[in-house]
Amino acid sequence: MKRFINTLKNIWKIKELRTRILFTLGLLGVFRLATFIVLPGVIASKMDNPTQNANDLLGLINIFTGGAFKNASIMALGIMPYITASIIVQLLGFAVPYFQRLQQKEGESGRKKLNQITRLLTLAITLVQGGAYLTYLRAQGAVDPSVPQGIFWISNIITLSAGTVFAMWLGERITDRGIGNGVSLLITVGIISRLPLALVAEFSLQLESNGLFIFVIELAMLFLIILATIMVVQGVRKIPIQFAKRMVGRGASNMPVAGARDYIPLKVNAAGVMPIIFAQALMFLPVTIAQFIAGNDPNAMSQTWLQSLSSPFSFWASVITFFMVVIFTYVYTALLVNPTQYADYLKRQNAFIPGIKPGKPTADFIDAITTRITLPGSIILGLIAVLPAVAVAFGVNPSLAIFFGGTSLLILVAVVLDTLQQIESHLLMRRYDGLVKSGRIQGRSRMQGLGANM
């Protein structure tokens, strides 16, 4: 505890770091405040008992927006349109040569063009999603009938678009002048804001049934799951590389110097949270199909086998989600990790893997290692995706169970680790002790950005 207090004092001593942290907290506070500003012409009380819950798509969106979706806030769409646009642009980079050239060969100018394309695509997605959200509000009966419909639609679509653009601007400002990745922090704050309510609900539930000991066990299991997730996120397979000998000095003083050793860190979970996002998006399709089959008959929904897939906590939904996460992990890793580019980069840098010939043998070796470590990584990621269903099966409240795994847990762990790594970098640069006694917090190290530099 004394060392932790000393670390906090050291953080406060560094003026630049202190300013960055306070700036970040201030903008995050502005974002949270905006989530409680209700759209004009909306009756907020009508949204007290919406049809969405933590089990469906709307409930998931509400979690990521920190409750702004349920509050009918000007930030109801949050930063999600920007995330969607970023994913689309990233996928286009794998398939479209123009985007590939912008990502890999045009350097800083290419990144600026991609950022501009992402912003424009974000605005287009926001206009579409804004119209869908206003339709949802109308279906909930939350629209004031005294407000002219034309004015309501036009003004609120503009307001929702402005809210998303403002959130995007906040995220970029945090990234530039604050600490951590701004966009990721906005999502993380939204997720964390739901955790206290979930803990209070679970505590009240266990208190009524005299299960305080069970509540303690649940917290201990949540802690252990977080530790295991951290191990998965930081886990890497280090492939040693060696740079060829080079001559140092001139004339008679020049002499051969042995090549430096380094390594390529291939992540056990290179795909990150994307496989779970794709799997969850596909799992929402059965709900739509079931509702289409049911029609106007309220009992028809329960008569179809698709009903069992409508809840992410059901057995068959968990089984299908698990296998989809495993498959998507392999697919996304294959798109993200290009062994040929690694081999070409090593060749250009006059480096090699000991015992492996340059060129195609190096690419084949990296591909084999990637395939080998992706299997346990995909299985672990699939288990993390279905852990909320396991928690519900053991009696955990669904509002708390979503923090036992899935997208929420992975985002929280990844963002917190990245932010702590940046803080530790500031401490170590000024010769202060880091946040850990030994080793270091895994972040975007020099070699981990290898693929981005090729």
The helix-and-strand class reads mainly alpha
Going by CATH, the homologous superfamily of the largest domain would be: SecY subunit domain
Give the integer mean of the pLDDT values: 80
Query: Which consecutive residue ranges, at least 5 long each, have pLDDT under 50?
Result: 50-55, 251-257, 444-454
How helical, in percent, are the residues? 55-70%
State Rg. Answer: 25 Å
User: What is the CATH fold-level name of the largest domain?
Assistant: Preprotein translocase SecY subunit
Provide a descriptive summary of the structure in words:
The structure is a single chain. The protein has 454 residues and is mainly alpha-helical. The protein folds into two domains: 180 residues, Orthogonal Bundle (Preprotein translocase SecY subunit), CATH 1.10.3370; 253 residues, SecY subunit domain (Preprotein translocase SecY subunit). Helix content is 65%, strand content 5%. The protein is built from 19 helices and five strands. The strands form two sheets. The protein has a three-stranded antiparallel sheet with strand order 4-1-5. Strands 2-3 form a two-stranded antiparallel ribbon. Strand 2 and strand 3 form a beta hairpin. Helix 6 runs antiparallel to helix 7 and helix 14 runs antiparallel to helix 16. The longest helix is centred in the C-terminal third of the chain and has 34 residues. The chain is globular and about 80 Å long. The relative contact order is 0.11. The C terminus is likely disordered.
